[in-house]
Automatic annotation (TrEMBL), chains A, B:
<protein>
    <recommendedName>
        <fullName>Auxin response factor</fullName>
    </recommendedName>
</protein>
<feature type="domain" description="TF-B3">
    <location>
        <begin position="105"/>
        <end position="207"/>
    </location>
</feature>
<comment type="subunit">
    <text>Homodimers and heterodimers.</text>
</comment>
<comment type="similarity">
    <text>Belongs to the ARF family.</text>
</comment>
<comment type="function">
    <text>Auxin response factors (ARFs) are transcriptional factors that bind specifically to the DNA sequence 5'-TGTCTC-3' found in the auxin-responsive promoter elements (AuxREs).</text>
</comment>
Length: 226, 226
DNA sequence: TTGTCGGCCGATCGCCGACAA
DNA sequence: TTGTCGGCGATCGGCCGACAA
């Protein structure tokens, strides 16, 4: 997956270590989230709860089923220095030095976007800054836009500017996309225009509450009045 | 899976050894068809190309995805006797000693059964000998029949006797069954009434030609004139 | 007896402007 | 600016008898 598209899908909260930077690896934390763990050489009984490593390489991937993006970080163990309490150097996040006119826009799907009538309300800023411009002399202004998902699969949508008052909509093609990606209200769609003007669409699933997770403790707690 | 239902689905060509009978096991033949092989104890280099075994137990199964039936035979190795050229004793096939009024009927799906309008033409013999009798005084005679698949899941079909000339049809419920089982023209459906009068439906997939299989050698061979 | 066809009716899909937040 | 609603036209699924193999 193209790193620029990957970052747009993952969102601004997802920070990755720079390649060749130093990171701490906590096997316990890894085990709590992952289903598989690397093989540790057997033998010595006690192992320290964390290792100093170097991020040797980062791979950008997307689940072929759900389109969810994830990164695979190859770790290179380093000798652990004597422990000091000095603060860790901050991890610099990877940012492309030059966007070259690339743009991304994310929208949380409303019930109308996800369920009803098969249409998608395009926020004006998204239509203006990402989609190709419409011929506003036509009535109504309409075009087909060609968008790739993270796997490179091409989807085409009918983009129309209509209604009173006027608004941008995606109509034909949208419901097929929603069904294929199993999107529901609350999920997000990310539209990306890369530096060559190519359009991409990524998705960001709403965090489905997970039974037993910490949020369960607060589900029934009183809320502050608005 | 009930052995009687299993045999009706597998068809008369599928013969199984009787439990506790002697069988020859050919690992090479097994390897050519199966993706996994039993673990042989490592060590000795040469092994004979076949073993004498005893069929210790037979399990009747059905693929939860495709409904295709298969048998799992537990083999018990026996000491191989000195090879003689006397013919093997014929393997007796397992047949229930008493059908107790059980019946089975298989039909190859026509294009109309599989594709069009969601209906299934029930051959008269099948309707007469397997389905519950219709009230022929009604106009048209109609009933709902309740049928289980090999996993025990219940399906209901509308069974009607109508048209000119009159014929038996399954209408409502049939297309859902076709879609769920991914049936296409050429596949077979087996209707089974067991000794208690319960109805079952099994499926037998048409043999899809398999690339590289022996039939490829004959695909383009000249055919005899009819 | 039963496979296929065209007709037809009802359900659903999906595009639309109206309207209000 | 944009979320939701009801209307409505097109499409599709599916039940039907006619007819022929």
């Amino acid at each position: 997956v193209d790193p620029q598209v990957w970052h747009a899908c993952a969102g601004p909260a997802a920070k990755l270590p720079a390649v060749r930077s130093a990171v701490w690896y906590f096997p316990q934390g890894h085990a709590e989230q992952a289903s598989s763990l690397p093989d540790f050489p057997a033998g010595s009984g006690w192992r320290p709860p964390f290792f100093l490593c170097r991020a040797a390489a980062i791979g950008f991937h997307a689940d072929p089923e759900t389109d969810e993006v994830f990164a695979r970080i190859l770790l290179d163990p380093r000798p652990t220095p004597p422990l000091s309490l000095s603060p860790e150097p901050p991890l610099s996040s990877v940012e492309g030095p030059d966007d070259g006119g690339a743009m991304a826009f994310a929208k949380v799907l409303t019930p109308s976007d996800a369920n009803n009538g098969g249409g998608f309300s395009v926020p004006r800023f998204c239509a203006d800054s990402i989609f190709p411009p419409l011929d506003m002399t036509a009535d109504p202004p309409v075009q087909n836009v060609t968008i790739r998902d993270v796997h490179g699969k091409v989807w085409t949508f009918r983009h129309i500017y209509r209604g009173t008052p006027r608004r941008h909509l995606l109509t034909t093609g949208w419901s097929k996309f929603v069904n294929a990606k199993k999107l529901i209200a609350g999920d997000s769609v990310v539209f990306i225009k890369n530096r060559h003007g190519l359009l991409y669409a990524g998705i960001r699933r709403a965090s489905r509450p997970c039974a037993g997770g910490p949020q369960d403790y607060f589900r029934h707690a009183p809320q502050a009045a608005p």
